[in-house]
Specification:
GO molecular function: glutathione dehydrogenase (ascorbate) activity; glutathione transferase activity
Strand order of the largest sheet: 2-1-3-4
Protein name: Glutathione S-transferase
Organism: Aureobasidium melanogenum
Structural class: alpha+beta
Shape: globular
GO cellular component, one term: cytoplasm
Number of domains: 2
CATH topology of the largest domain: Glutathione S-transferase Yfyf (Class Pi), Chain A, domain 2
Order of helices and strands: HEHEHEEHHHHHHHHHH
Keywords: Oxidoreductase
CATH architecture of the largest domain: Up-down Bundle
Strand content: 5-15%
Length: 282
């Protein structure tokens, strides 16, 4: 019986292993290597670093971590036991953006930050926007239980995404143009979870066809490194259920009329979307 079940066999447990394409990638990188990524299958912060490793074509070992049974190897790198964490030889570090910067500084494989200092600063500025506004906004919206709060948080998330899209290259499809770079990788796990998590739980709308946002979402979803690190829909849906539908609020969530009202408001009264300060655990 798993730790989170508290000796209750009827209580739903949690996913401990990746599925689908992500599982195939885990199996390809299961052999011992000096560069080790500690991750959990449902964690978007892990996926950032994982995408970076795949894009760069680096050799590494992926170590799947059970969040309720943290291995000593992980605790030696991050005493809090949170993922992602990276061990490189006898050195270790954590926090997804820091780890992405570290992989850049190794100067191996495909560069995700441009060589031009101004574009690098531009990328870092909007990477910070993702971490300060979009990531926490995603979780506020997901965890909001009252209809009014869901509507307010949904509109705020759309507004923050709109700002990011406005700052992106006008032709795209990615943030800086036709190539996936640092900001895209920072944003990619949440783009994936808009459809896999927010759509079923909060009625998140599909991107409007022909917009800059739609082109960006499609490009991210089709990227080989993103696909290689993404599990099946069921894993995300089940992993996030306890955040979207806490036990004490399920009766309210089950009220289909209330939910449909909130979804309709978000679909037709949303800001136009043109063409970490959050714990790294979910």
């Amino acid at each position: 019986m798993d730790a989170n079940q508290n000796n209750d066999p009827t209580k739903k447990t949690y996913h401990k292993k990746a599925t689908g394409k992500a599982l195939e990638t885990v199996e390809k990188h299961s052999q011992d290597h000096e560069l080790k990524l500690f991750g959990s299958c449902f964690c978007p912060f892990v996926q950032r670093v994982w995408i970076s490793l795949e894009m760069k074509g680096l050799d590494y070992q992926y170590i799947e971590v059970d969040p309720y049974k943290k291995p000593q190897q992980l605790l030696e790198v991050n005493p809090r036991g949170l993922v992602p964490a990276l061990r490189h030889g006898d050195w270790g570090c954590y926090e997804s953006t820091v780890l992405m910067e570290y992989l850049e500084d190794l100067q191996k494989g495909e560069a995700l930050l441009p060589s031009d200092p101004k574009l690098r600063a531009h990328s870092r500025l909007w990477s910070d926007h993702v971490n300060r506004h979009i990531v926490p906004g995603f979780y506020r919206y997901l965890q909001a239980q009252e209809e009014k709060s869901q509507i307010e948080n949904g509109e705020e998330l759309k507004e923050q995404i709109s700002k990011l899209v406005d700052a992106a290259d006008k032709s795209g499809p990615f943030f800086l143009g036709n190539k996936m770079t640092f900001v895209d990788v920072q944003m990619a796990p949440w783009v994936i979870r808009l459809r896999k998590v927010l759509q079923p739980y909060r009625g998140w709308p599909e991107p409007e066809s022909g917009t800059r946002w739609a082109a960006w979402v499609n490009a991210i979803e089709q990227d080989h490194a993103v696909r290689a690190t993404t599990s099946t829909d069921a894993l995300y849906n089940e992993s996030y259920q306890r955040y979207a539908e806490p036990p004490l609020c399920k009766s309210m969530i089950a009220d289909s009329n209330s939910k449909k009202t909130a979804q309709t408001h978000l679909r037709y009264n949303k800001p136009s979307i043109p063409g970490a300060d959050f714990p790294e655990a979910l």
